[in-house]
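P.,

For your records, the input lines for the assembly:
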Amino acid sequence: MTTAAHPTEPLDAARLYGRGRLSAARRDIAQALASLGGAFTAEDLHAAVSALRPGIGVATVYRAVAAMAEANSLALVGARDGSTLYARCAGGKHHHHLICTGCGTVVSVACPVDGPLVRSAREAGYTVTAHEVTLYGLCPTCSKERG
Amino acid sequence: MTTAAHPTEPLDAARLYGRGRLSAARRDIAQALASLGGAFTAEDLHAAVSALRPGIGVATVYRAVAAMAEANSLALVGARDGSTLYARCAGGKHHHHLICTGCGTVVSVACPVDGPLVRSAREAGYTVTAHEVTLYGLCPTCSKERG
DNA sequence: GTAGGTGCAAAGGATTTGCTTAAAC
DNA sequence: GTTTAAGCAAATCCTTTGCACCTAC
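Structure tokens returned:
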């Protein structure tokens, strides 16, 4: 199957950030993150954490996001307007993301680049070192709602 | 073949911008664009035009880029640091881009998303409305140079 | 003559950084 | 006690916008 539930680990705040210290703020960020579910921007996360911890600074959230991305707990899954979209992503097997533009839900999709595409590029003399793939669309629920 | 010379039309300044007026500044921008070759940022283009037309404003370049993108003469092909990467792209058949990180050359690659991936997503109840695919790597020349 | 383009400067939004204070280990 | 994170503000970076003037058609 090509689409699948997006692989995330249980939300263990200690692991989210790798080897950093676990402050109260970061615990709240972890909790807010769990409540977001799908794709989100740093601003979304900041807004969510603010409900739990009024007055938390944006820099704190940005630094936490950077730490989580570094620890492979978050993946950069795209962009919305001028902002970067992140989603929880346990890493593991290489895959990409389909983001529901209706509700933000994220599902995994198999990588369509590895394989024939990279192979034929190599045969043409090209070396593919990186690639970005993101799909946008509607999840089953939102598909029904919007016809 | 999966990789191919990137489809661009001969640089006809009149067509680059769609139906807008052809000012002297836009003619110079067109000429600078031709000299850039591959992927570029608005800032790259502004720098190139500045050689031909010192004192040209950045806003003019940004507006010209927007006009060209609107007219399907340019495609947004990715991002570098915080900046948007564009490349000449005649449009036509749906495709994506492989950008050489060595020299900026852009080549077309077939879309690996249309087909099985979209079909299986649809079977799972998802509607795919859009997708982004960009490959990064080295062209044959840069591959040799860097081993 | 008029819509559209230019240039400049200021605004805008997202993200980062410097610095001092507070807290985890 | 030492090192790391928080909080706040200022700074930065890319891009867009407002406005007065100019120019292609």
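Two observations worth noting. The two ends of chain A are 24 Å apart (CA to CA). The first helix of chain A runs from residue 13 to 16.

Regards
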